[in-house]
Structure formats: C-alpha cells, structure tokens
Design a protein that fits this description.
The complex is a heterodimer of chains A (216) and B (285). Chain A is mainly α and 216 residues long. In chain A, 75% of the residues lie in helices and 0% in strands. Chain A has one domain: MetI-like (MetI-like fold, Orthogonal Bundle). In chain A, helix 4 runs antiparallel to helix 7, helix 5 runs antiparallel to helix 6 and helix 7 runs antiparallel to helix 10. Chain B contains twelve helices and nine strands. In chain B, helix 6 packs across helix 7. Classes of the chains: A mainly alpha (216), B alpha/beta (285). The interface between A and B is large, with 37 and 43 residues.
C-alpha cells in the first residue's frame, strides 16, 4: 500500500486541509477584525460564541454536517456527502472560529493609540486595517497555524462526512484509524510519522515567514 | 510607514490573488459532485468485507467494467441498514438476517440476494481459562459465564453483535450487566486486538480473524457449530420509496457480484494468503 496510494492520501489531506485553512482565513480574518474594531450590542456575546467555536469537537461538527448533507437531509440534493468538498465544509466550520478568535485577540493586543494615530495621520479605514494587520502579523500567522493544525489533525468530521472512501475521501488521519483497526500497526505508525513530518514542514515554513524581519 | 507604497501594496494584492486562484484550481481538481450524481453508487457495507480486503479488489474491478464510481462506507450492519432505510445508500451488504427481513417487510428494500457465507467462531487466549475448546457454542457461553472470564462484545449493533446477543439469549444468559462482559463499540478487527490484549474471548467472523491472526494472540476455540453460520446478503434499496436512489447502478453492482467470474474469484479469495478461502458460496457450512 505504500508508494502511490500513500502519496495520493497525503496529497488529498493537504489539498483538503489547505483549502479549508485558506477559506477559514478568508472568513476569519475579516470577521475577527470586525469583532476587534467595532463596538455594538451583543458583541461580547458574539465573541463568546466564537471562542466556544474554537473548541468545537470535530465529531460534533461532522455529525451536524452529515445530517445536513445526507440525501435525507435538507441539503441532500447537492450530492455532497462522502466527497472531499464535504470534508472541506466541515473543516472550515472547525477552523474559521479558531482564525476569527485569534485574529480578534491579536488585534486587541495592539496598542489602541496606534489606531488613533493612523487615523490622525489621514489613513483611510482600509489603510488603517491593513496597517493593523501588518503590525499584528506575528499573532495572525500563529492564528493561521492554529487553524491548519486543527484541521490537518482532525478525524471525527473527516470520517463522518467523508466516509473514509479509498482513493476518494481517505485522508491521513482516517487511514491511520483504518490501519490501526486492521491491526496493521506498522503501516499505521508510518502514516502517523508522515502526518507529523508534513505538519512540521508546513509550520516550519510559516514560522520562518513569521519570524523573518523580527528583531529582538 | 502609514500609507503603503503603491508598488508594495499591489504586490501583496497579486500575492493574495495567486493564493485564491491556487485554491480554486485545487478545488477543481477534486471530483465535482453535480456531474457525479448518476455515476456514483453508495455502498453501505459491514466492516468485515472491507477489513478482509475483498472489497478493495472487487470494487475497482466493477468500477473499471462499468465506469461508475463506488463510494464504499464501511459500517456495522445495523448502521448500513439505517443508512438504507433513509435512502442514504443505494445498495447494502449486510449479515443480520433478522433485521434484513424487517427491512424488506418495511418496504425499504426491493431485492435481497444471498451473496456468500462463512462461519462465526469463538476465539480466545490459548490458555483457555474457561475450558471451552471443542465444545458447542452454547456450552462454551455457559462456561465463560460460570468462570466469569472476560468476554469482549462488539456492542455496536453490527451483524456480529446482533448474532452474539441472540446466542447469549438462546443460551439463557444475560451478560450485559456483568463485570466480565465488555463492549468495545468498534469494528471486528479492532475488537480482536482488544480481546488479544486483554486475554479475552470474543465472537468473530472467520474472515476477519484469519486476516488479522498474525497480529493477535488468539486461537480458535469453537467452530463448525451449525448455529454459527454467517450469511451475507445484498440488498437493493427501494427506488420507489427514495427517488434519489441510483437503482440502475445498484442493479449493475448486484449483477456484477453474482456473476460467475466474481463467484469464481470469491471461492478462492484468501486461499493463497491464509491457507483457506475466507468465504463460501453455498449457504451451508
């Protein structure tokens, strides 16, 4: 089973979790920024919801997404159950709160006077947000890494909405469970090490980007 | 520092743009669901057929012949029947006669075809603390209960679990609350690993045991009892009841499974690797 099938499983894991992380960034960065910079009734309630979402158990997300996407469910017509797209949807629900919550925390930890100074110097709203992101890029990249870490390592949702179908929705984590279940501990630990190495390499690149230009 | 230099800003936009395009192309590389609607078949199956490796060979063969894509969901028979009863699968491979008949009577299925059979066996540690080797299954269950020897149940409403519960009931024993009766809640292979680690008894289908034997410290203690026949059926989910069911594809897969070529393949499957075939075609022991 090593060789091409392992390569295919690994590539699929990276595609699914990479895409889910990117979509979570596209959702979480603006939403987290909005939560950090605005002031309205119910804001702290919304923030509590997001912070709870950071700890959403993947198996719970998997169950609800599966119930939505099953043919008997409200979105059954879309025929998305047991597809990689279904896993991406579930993983975005897992990672988007992580990115949102950490984005809010990152921006709120900036000196509030920076915002006033930027506006005072004539920056437009968008220029001001852009500068705040630049200023907070270290914790923002940490948010991205946390989001990716949450989805590449999750298994409950992938198993439930993907179905662990060979060549279609089998990803590294579900393959590890399958091989462990079969008693193929050698294969299972091989895949586990592969998962760890890949996660490390990706975080290494991101950390390198993050630390570039940092002077102590 | 305040307003970004124009060039730097456009550069970041290009970078962001590239990222998005990149992700979209990754997206299109994934199979598109809409066009796949009529060309995919959802097969809900008992875990033993996947764990034995049989489906890993048969499914790609069928896909190559038919041009269809098969989505194999390996769950217990109970869950497979549940998926079928809500129209969430097109075809089922199960081994739970009682529930299957109820499924058919409720009109969820249109056809139930015997596919193949094998034996359930009682396995346990070679030390055999309850002294059950060579006895009949009912004597063995009584001895296990009397010796309070650890017994691992699947506990997952799978076909194996249902038959195990029926055997206890027929033996007149209610083990559910006993401290020596453990429920793993997992598939057959995983349950065998637990039994092996705990030096416990468990009921298993012969195929899964043979396939995983190399990793286990378990031996066959009771076999060949006529009560222990394990029959696998193909069930076609009713398209009248669930219009979304892909009946044409299900029918084609059933035809493939019961074709002479597939039968010849099943008859010898496992012979070379495990010294005996994993499944039998006639329904007798």
């Amino acid at each position: 089973m090593f060789d091409r099938e392992v390569f295919q499983i690994t590539l699929l894991s990276l595609q699914i979790s990479g895409l889910a992380t990117l979509l979570s960034l596209l959702i979480g960065l603006p939403f987290g920024t909005f939560l950090a910079l605005s002031n309205f009734r119910g804001r702290s309630f919304l923030l509590s919801l997001v912070n709870t979402g950071m700890g959403l158990p993947p198996v719970v997300v998997g169950l609800f997404v599966a119930m939505l996407l099953w043919r008997s469910g409200p979105l059954g017509k879309l025929n998305l159950i047991y597809t990689p797209t279904a896993i991406v949807i579930a993983q975005v629900i897992i990672a988007a709160p992580v990115v949102s919550g950490l984005t809010t925390a990152a921006l709120q930890s900036l000196d509030p006077r920076l915002r006033l100074q930027l506006l005072g110097l004539g920056a437009s709203r968008w220029q001001m947000i852009w500068e705040l992101w630049r200023e907070a890029r270290l914790p923002l990249l940490a948010a991205l890494m946390a989001g990716f870490g949450a989805v590449i390592s999750e298994i409950g949702a992938s198993m439930m909405v993907g179905g662990n179908i060979r060549f279609q929705t089998r990803v590294l984590t579900t393959a590890i469970v399958l091989e462990t279940g079969k008693g193929n501990f050698g294969m299972a630990s091989g895949l586990a090490i592969l998962l760890l190495v890949i996660t490390f390499l990706i975080n290494w690149v991101l950390t390198h980007l993050q630390q570039k230009g940092v002077r102590i | 520092m305040i307003p970004l230099p124009q060039r730097q800003r456009s550069l970041s936009f290009i970078l962001a743009f590239c990222l998005v395009i990149n992700s979209l192309s990754a997206c299109s590389a994934l199979p598109s669901p809409a066009s796949a609607e009529r060309s995919t078949l959802i097969l809900a199956t008992t875990t033993s057929l996947q764990d034995s490796g049989l489906l890993d060979i048969l499914v790609p063969r069928f896909e190559a012949q038919s041009g269809l894509t098969v989505k194999t969901i390996a769950v217990g028979s109970g869950q497979a029947l549940k998926l079928g009863s809500e129209g969430n699968a097109d075809i089922l491979l199960t081994h739970d006669p009682e529930e299957e008949i109820a499924f058919m009577q409720n009109g969820y299925g249109v056809e139930r075809i015997p596919l193949m059979a094998n034996q359930f066996i009682l396995v346990g540690p070679s030390s055999d603390p309850a002294q059950v080797k060579g006895t009949s299954i009912y004597v063995a269950l009584h001895k296990i209960a009397k010796a309070q020897a650890t017994f691992i149940s699947r506990g997952d409403q799978s076909g194996t679990h249902k038959i195990e519960k029926a055997l206890w009931a027929k033996a007149g024993i209610q083990p559910a609350q006993e401290p020596w009766y453990l429920e793993s809640g997992q598939g057959m292979a995983a349950t065998l690993t637990i039994a092996s680690e705990k030096g416990a008894y468990t009921l298993t289908d012969r195929a899964t045991f043979l396939v995983t034997r190399a990793q286990q410290n378990l031996v066959i203690l009771v076999e060949g009892d006529p009560e222990l026949l394990n029959v696998y059926h193909i069930i076609l989910v009713n398209p009248q009841r669930f219009p979304q069911v892909n009946f044409t594809a299900a029918k084609a897969f059933a035809r493939f499974l019961t074709s002479p070529q597939t039968k010849a393949f099943i008859r010898q499957f496992g012979q070379a690797e495990y010294g005996e075939p994993l499944f039998m075609l006639n329904n007798g022991p």
